[in-house]
Every structure is written in structure tokens, then in C-alpha cells.
Specification:
Blueprint: H1 2-39, H2 41-77, H3 80-141, H4 143-185
Helix pairs in contact: 1-2, 2-3, 3-4
């Protein structure tokens, strides 16, 4: 019991300093993610989800360690009600963390899907200008190929436009599925 009380005293002296450093790190990370999100929204969403998963995992670990220490202290001091409350707090902490972890993972997946499909759309949107410039360059040097290339391009343009039009709804479906899963696991039933 004396050893546990000694460890508790050491922990009580170190904990405020550790919490202060971790608080600064947390604020810095959140600021960095917010700045990244302004320029790259999909990446910001991915990083935000990762940060939330890491933060939730860290808080869960902290809660479990605190309750395990208190559990041992309560068992050795004969406080069975306190020990039982520590066990309940551990289980409660795990079950409260699960939705937050799933939410963070879903946000990250949504950011990845959004980022990948948005990038593909941007590539297809730039394609007409790029191909037109390339055709112009070829026609400058080989005028005979101009009509053939233009005909091929005229056939391809509606296909590319169709792909662009199809990708946005596909992206929306994936993002909606991910949001649905997130809402189910976080208890936001009305949103699901």
C-alpha cells in the first residue's frame, strides 16, 4: 500500500506538467490541421479524423491506467465498492471511446474518398484544355493530322464530360455511406 501511495504522489506531481505539455501539443496539432484544411479540405478531413482517433485512444489509455491504479489501491485498502466502480469506469470508457474512434475513422475515409474522386474530376476537367493544346501543337507541325485528331477528340469529349458528371454522384454515394455508418455508431439516429 505504501508503494502505491508513493507512486501516486509521484504521479500527482508529474501529471500537471505532462498535461500542460500535451495541451500545447494538442493545440498546435489542431491549428496545423485547421490550416491544412483551409488549403486542402480533403486532407484536412483525413488528418482531423486521424487526430481524433489518436486523441481518443490516448484519453482511453489515460482513463484505463488511472482506473487500474485506483482499482489496485482500492483492492489493497479493502474498498471493494471503489474497486468495482473502477472496473465499471474502465468498461464505460472503452464503450464511450468506440463511437469516437469509428467517427474519426469514418471522417478519414470520407476525406480519402472525397480527395481521390475530386482529384480525378479535376484531371478530367483539365483534360479538354490539355488535349486541345496538344492538338494545336500537332496541327502546327502536321496539318494533315488536324482533322483526324479533331474528329477523335470530338468523339472523346462527350465521354469525358459524362465521366465528370458521373463521378460527383458516385463520390456523394460513398460519402453518404460513410456518414451513415458514422451516424449509426455515434448514436446520431436522426441523421442516419
Amino acid at each position: 500500500v505504501k508503494a502505491i501511495k508513493g507512486l501516486e504522489k509521484i504521479g500527482n506531481k508529474i501529471a500537471p506538467a505532462i498535461n500542460k505539455v500535451l495541451g500545447k501539443v494538442k493545440r498546435t496539432v489542431y491549428k496545423a490541421v485547421a490550416q491544412i484544411a483551409q488549403k486542402f479540405p480533403a486532407l484536412g478531413k483525413v488528418l482531423g479524423g486521424v487526430v481524433r482517433v489518436v486523441e481518443t485512444g490516448f484519453n482511453l489509455l489515460k482513463n484505463v491506467l488511472k482506473n487500474v491504479i485506483d482499482f489496485v489501491k482500492n483492492v489493497f485498502s479493502g474498498n471493494w465498492k471503489g474497486a468495482w466502480n473502477n472496473v465499471k469506469n474502465i468498461v464505460k470508457g472503452v464503450f464511450e471511446a468506440i463511437p469516437q474512434i469509428i467517427s474519426g475513422i469514418c471522417d478519414s475515409l470520407g476525406g480519402i474518398v472525397d480527395g481521390v474522386i475530386s482529384t480525378i474530376i479535376k484531371v478530367f476537367e483539365k483534360l479538354p484544355e490539355t488535349v486541345s493544346n496538344a492538338i494545336s501543337k500537332v496541327v502546327e507541325h502536321f496539318p494533315v493530322l488536324g482533322d483526324i485528331l479533331q474528329t477523335v477528340w470530338d468523339i472523346c469529349t462527350p465521354i469525358i464530360d459524362g465521366i465528370c458528371e458521373a463521378l460527383n454522384p458516385i463520390k456523394d454515394v460513398f460519402v453518404n455511406i460513410i456518414d451513415f455508418v458514422k451516424n449509426v455508431f455515434t448514436g446520431q439516429w436522426s441523421a442516419a
